Amino acid sequence: MQGDIAVNSSLVKAISLILLGMKKPIHILQRGYQINSIVDMSTMGVLDA
Question: What was the pLDDT predicted at 22?
C-alpha cells in the first residue's frame, strides 16, 4: 500500500523529548541522562540548526 511506513523497531532508538510548534524545535534534556543520550541529543540539535 502506498503511504504505509514499515519501521523495524530494532533500528529505532528513543533519545529524548523534542518540543515542536515553535520557530525551531526545542530539545529537552532531563537530569539523570547518561552521557550517550546527551551526545545523541546534541547531535540532533546540530542537525536541526
Answer: 76
